[in-house]
Task: structure prediction
Amino acid sequence: MTYGVMPLGALAGGALGTLLGLRTTLLVSGLAVLAASLFLVLSPVRRLRDLPTAKRSDVPATAPSAGGGARPDEVGGERVTE
Result:
């Protein structure tokens, strides 16, 4: 996805550079980068210390294991009996 939108960003940056000037465009893009990361600073992600664990009922029975290719009656490499 990143590489797909790079040409659009280059086009937008060139247009802004032409319309506003180089210094103003760099200031606007710097503020946009800060604003984009602001949602992480203000979110509960900052307070997380460990990854939350899913309950066994939240995991679908057809989820592939880490080794890949799990059978439908296996979840995470363990046999599921319900």
